[in-house]
């Protein structure tokens, strides 16, 4: 006896298959269309990351290659070679005898991506609560998503800054680079005060170690001496030692007598009843945290009095311009002061 499929079941299967086909093939919003867009975006990201690498090596006067490109992009040599071929087809590079050379159009494109990246880093530092360790990573993700006119609106919203929060120059809209600043830290003479004007954020491990030592873009320090142990520094009132290799990641400008650290202490050193005069807020405090301190009146010349310690000693209550606020020790240590002495102590 011949059996026939259940018409209802067959209709259900057909409906499911039709639905799946619609989901996959729907114009613009279907799965296939989305996969194609994702592939196109990934290809553009690789292209732009590759252009940034070629520009960086050009500025460093190094000869780039398919191998160096693959390493910078984190892809295979074959994939890097495909990217180079695409760049060449688009007129962004030409192939030299032993290297890959940016054309004028390729250099302009690369500078635009670098501009976008560094503007995003500046925005994240100034306008958000994102920590310094995340600026570079988030900017790497965001740099590929803005149209040129959106980049210029971002720059205008921050007053067209010339440098990012690490001190790297931000290319102008016309593709010009602001002049480099400063000298290597190791070139200073002992007993010289300086301000950090550039801190290299790669490799990440070195950047973290510098920040752990309290050294950031804008930090004031004094080179005490250089010996077998490394560079002995006074960093905003604290003595630290860094290795010569790590010191190479710092560029500084001498500040002369302006940078004297004599008598400088951290607010956290005050005991209840003692007072200090704000000299400055440490360079490591940026963005929303810095604005909050400024809003509270923590500006140079302000008198701050330690009022009351909690049972554990942290946080501490401080009186600032008539208001009492609580600051944790880590926050108080970001505020640099000169201790205010009574007339009897001064005498």
Could you explain how this protein is built, in words?
- By secondary structure, the protein is an alpha+beta fold.
- Among the domains are: 77 residues, Ferrous iron transport protein A (FeoA) (SH3 type barrels, Roll), CATH 2.30.30; 83 residues, Roll (SH3 type barrels).
- Helices cover 41% and strands 21% of the residues.
- The chain contains 12 helices and 14 strands.
- The strands form 3 sheets. Strands 3-8-4-5-6-7 form a 6-stranded antiparallel beta sheet. Strands 9-14-10-11-12-13 form a 6-stranded antiparallel beta sheet.
- A hairpin with a 6-residue loop joins strand 11 and strand 12.
- Helix 2 crosses helix 4 and helix 3 packs across helix 4.
- The N and C termini lie far apart (119 Å).
CATH superfamily of the domain at 264-346: Ferrous iron transport protein A (FeoA)
Query: Which runs of at least 5 residues are low in confidence (pLDDT < 50)?
Result: 32-41
Radius of gyration equals: 28 Å
What gross morphology would you assign? globular
SS content category = alpha+beta
By CATH, the topology of the domain at 264-346 is SH3 type barrels
- Strands across the major sheet, in which order? 3-8-4-5-6-7
N→C terminal distance: 119 Å
Strand content: 15-25%
Largest sheet properties? 6 strands, antiparallel
CATH class of the domain at 264-346: Mainly Beta
Task: Sketch the topology as an H/E string, one letter per element.
Answer: HHHHEEHHHEEHEEEHEEEHEEEHEH
Number of helices: 12
Query: What do the pLDDT scores average to?
Result: 84
Q: Work out the oligomeric state of the chains in this entry.
A: single chain
| Annotation, overall tally of beta strands | 14
């Amino acid at each position: 006896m011949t059996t026939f499929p259940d018409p209802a079941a067959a209709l259900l299967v057909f409906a499911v298959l039709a639905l799946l086909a619609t989901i996959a093939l729907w114009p613009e919003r279907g799965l296939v269309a989305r996969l194609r867009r994702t592939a196109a975006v990934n290809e553009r990201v690789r292209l732009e990351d590759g252009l940034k690498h070629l520009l960086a090596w050009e500025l460093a006067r190094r000869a780039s290659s398919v191998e160096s490109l693959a390493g910078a992009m984190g892809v295979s040599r074959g994939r890097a070679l495909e990217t180079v071929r695409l760049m060449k087809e688009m007129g962004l590079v030409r192939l030299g005898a032993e290297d890959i050379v940016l054309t004028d159009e390729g250099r302009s494109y690369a500078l635009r991506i670098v501009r976008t990246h560094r503007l995003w880093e500046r925005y994240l530092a100034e306008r958000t609560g994102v920590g310094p360790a995340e600026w570079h990573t988030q900017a790497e993700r965001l740099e590929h998503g803005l149209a040129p006119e959106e980049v210029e609106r971002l720059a205008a919203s921050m007053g067209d800054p010339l440098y990012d929060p690490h001190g790297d120059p931000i290319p102008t809209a016309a593709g010009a680079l602001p002049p480099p600043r400063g000298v290597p830290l190791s070139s200073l003479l002992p007993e010289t005060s300086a301000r950090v004007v550039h801190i290299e954020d790669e490799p990440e491990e070195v950047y973290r170690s510098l920040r752990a030592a309290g050294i950031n873009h804008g930090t004031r320090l004094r080179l005490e001496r250089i010996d077998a142990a490394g560079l002995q520094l006074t960093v905003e009132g604290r003595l630290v030692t860094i290795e010569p290799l790590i010191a190479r990641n710092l560029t500084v400008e001498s500040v002369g007598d302006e940078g004297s650290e004599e008598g400088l202490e951290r607010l956290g050193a005050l005991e209840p009843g003692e007072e200090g005069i704000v000299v400055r807020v440490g360079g490591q405090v940026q963005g929303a945290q810095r604005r909050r301190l400024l809003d509270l009146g923590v500006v140079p010349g302000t008198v701050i009095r330690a009022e009351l310690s909690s049972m554990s000693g942290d946080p501490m209550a401080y009186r600032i311009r008539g208001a009492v606020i609580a600051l944790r020790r880590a926050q108080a240590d970001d505020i640099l002061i000169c201790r205010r002495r009574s007339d009897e102590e001064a005498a």
